[in-house]
Amino acid sequence: MSLLPLRVLYLLSDFIYFIVYKVFGYRKKVVLQNLSIAFPHKTQAEKEAIARKFYRNFTDNFIETIKFISASQSYIKRHCDGDFSLVHEVYKQGRSIQVLAGHNFNWELVNLAVAPSMPGKVLAVYLPLNNAAFERLFRYIRMRFGTMLIAAKRMKEDMLPHRGTQYIIGLVADQSPGVPHRAHWVQFFGRPTGFLKGPENAARRNNYPVFFIYFTKRKRGFYTAHVELLTDNAHGLPEGQLTKMYVNYLEQVMTEHPELWLWSHRRWKHEWKPDYDKVIE
């Protein structure tokens, strides 16, 4: 299937979209609930229009990932571009760099495109899949063009070979925290929302320059990566400030391009409690 032209694979994507959205309504209730939280002033028709676009991008993301099993590096470069010159400039200072992303389509493509464009080795933190066969497949896809994977549950062990070296480490940092009382709680679309402390703690401890990366879709199958410097002095920021800066960027991008975020993810499944950390405004 991966050897088929993308235009043929998109026919399969259209069929899957029909089944997932029209027939089964996969997580449609979650999607619309999330959209209602994020955009309370939008009409029901507007939210459903975003949902339809989301599901098309959702199925395209899956189908495009199949293509990445066999796609050449030149193919990847044609389908995803971006200006990474600022990362190169900061990397010349001899410092390791942290790059924060969100679940923004198509993150698998951007991972493949970014690694060869970076000035040094790229480490990507990921959550291993429970299914062994899919875990092997996605590790193969993600590592094809030089990305080195760091399992989130084995961070200390997997980072040992890279201690004392210069690297660029990327994290998708908008997951819902597994342990809510240990999270940073930040106002996100007007609602207290838990975010993992790990990315900020690592950035402050190592004084990483921190970049935010997001992706826009030029047309079907073609994306552009955008990088912006959040801070070059993470150690000097008050606790929670870096997470707040990341959340602000994420909210801005999601507002401008709502159809490109993973709305089927239950981002607001936890509620803030008085014994948690104070909500960062």
Describe the structure.
It is a single chain. The longest helix has 24 residues. 34% of the residues are buried. The N and C termini lie far apart (48 Å). The model has no long low-confidence stretch (mean pLDDT 95). The protein has 281 residues and is of the alpha/beta class. The strands form two sheets. The protein has a seven-stranded mixed β-sheet with strand order 1-9-8-2-5-3-4, sandwiched between helices. Strands 6-7 form a two-stranded antiparallel sheet. The chain has one domain: Glycerol-3-phosphate (1)-acyltransferase, CATH 3.40.1130. Strand 6 and strand 7 form a beta hairpin.
Highlighted features:
281 residues, two-stranded antiparallel ribbon, globular, seven-stranded mixed sheet, Glycerol-3-phosphate (1)-acyltransferase, alpha/beta, 9 strands
Biggest sheet: strand arrangement: 1-9-8-2-5-3-4
Number of strands: 9
CATH level 1 name: Alpha Beta
Low-confidence stretches: none
- Estimated radius of gyration: 19 Å
Topology:
Elements: H1 6-23, H2 28-38, H3 44-67, H4 73-79, E1 80-82, H5 85-91, E2 97-101, H6 107-117, E3 122-126, H7 132-142, E4 148-151, H8 155-159, E5 168-172, E6 184-188, E7 191-195, H9 198-206, E8 210-219, E9 222-231, H10 241-256
Parallel strand pairs: 1-9, 2-5, 2-8, 3-4, 3-5
Antiparallel strand pairs: 6-7, 8-9
Helix pairs in contact: 1-3, 2-3
